[in-house]
Amino acid sequence: MHPTAAAASPQSRKKPFYASLWAQVLLAITAAVALGYFSPAQAIAMKPLGDAFIRLITMIITLIIFCTVVSGIAGMQDMKKVGRVGGKALLYFEVVSTLALFIGLVVGNVVRPGGGFNVNPATLDARAVAAYAGQAKAQSVTEFLMHIIPTTLVDAFAKGDILEVLLVSILFGFALSAMGTRCKPLVDLFDALTHAVFGIVNIVMKFAPIGAFGAIAFTVGKYGLASLGPLLKIIATFYIMSLLFVLIVLGAIARAAGFRILKFLAYLKDEIFIVVGVNSSEAALPSLMAKMEKLGCSKPLVGLVVPAGYTFNTDGSSLYMTLAALFVAQATNTPLTLMQQLTILAVATLTSKGASGVQGASFIALVATLTVVPTIPVAGMALLLGIDRFMSTGRALVNVIGNGVATLVVARWEGEFDRKTLQRLLG
Predict the structure, then answer these.
(1) DSSP type of residue 283
(2) What CATH code is assigned to 19-426?
(3) Most buried residue among 129, 150, 176, 306 by CB atoms closer than 10 A?
(4) C-alpha–C-alpha distance, residues 254 and 182, integer Å
(5) What are the residue boundaries of the structural domains of the chain, listed by start?
(6) What gap in Å lies between CA 310 and CA 236, rounded to an integer?
(7) CA pair distance 375, 110, nearest whole angstrom
(8) Whole-prediction pTM
(9) What is the pLDDT of residues 29-58, one digit of tens each?
(10) 335 CB burial (10 A radius; 0-12, 13-18, 19+)
């Protein structure tokens, strides 16, 4: 049994709701909002609590991916399956994330969230965006692929780059599998280490309410709920669009795959509240992988699809990027031709990769996208800078949910779909 399987045992289900992780995080969020509203200075001082929790999770993510992928691939009999799973996953990622970009573009044109702002770009503080613009760089396909290859094996883990670690893990797993029984003791060691690492995850997750309290208190204390007022239209547009994307688009995909999206969302309630609390999709990665395995997906499939999805399947970031690009153009009264909008869409299919819900990643990617259309003043991004932390929560939520759905879809394509397990856990 997986170390996290205890979370789904009958005994744990009999616990009162306030003993569950999602309820504790919800209570912490409520207290944090109150503190941020009534005592902003003290709330801002809580920031280290949120940062510390995210660092605790981040420090073990690369080890989880490495152990899971290596032990999974090394234990597989059919090596062709690894390539097949990867190919199917990438195809799914590209189709759904491109659809999300297109939906953001359509909604931006129909709702026009930036209409009526009539902002003069010369009056905006371009220095506020300068730090992000310095990090933004529109990569070519070749540059993006080269970035996946680490300088050294150690460098991949030192930087914590998920794609680089995934590449190293796949190569290491293939090597162990090719060597056969000679490496069985090493494979057993990695399998045991995987259990130990997930044991660490179980311990760290107990501090999720504290991390959520610190992150939310800082956000509300620093930016204030009043800061949402002037930009309420784009905030509401984005969150309604994201909700409909999950319920309609991902819901249709889920139904075609044999499960219901609402039941799946209830199954992921702990991960959803963690993302809301700490404002990062990476914080939910370890427990998301564990829950996908509990639904019957094999370890190597989960180890390949979920980490890769955090880079290639950023549905929430895709929805945001095209919508936000049109918002900036509309707010600064910058007309865009159909060809310019399609150019933004095409470039965003590449720049959106890697915008995995980490604070600031999508903002940097959006700046990089806008640079390809010189008529749009990048200084206009200053309008979104103050609300980006609020928007990133929605992006991260859709990213996590989308990757969970993608994993089950690929598992269905691979014949790993266990309807009895799904009925028991999602029924």
Answers:
(1) G
(2) 1.10.3860.10
(3) 306
(4) 42
(5) 19-426
(6) 25
(7) 21
(8) 0.79
(9) 899 889 988 988 998 999 899 888 888 888
(10) exposed
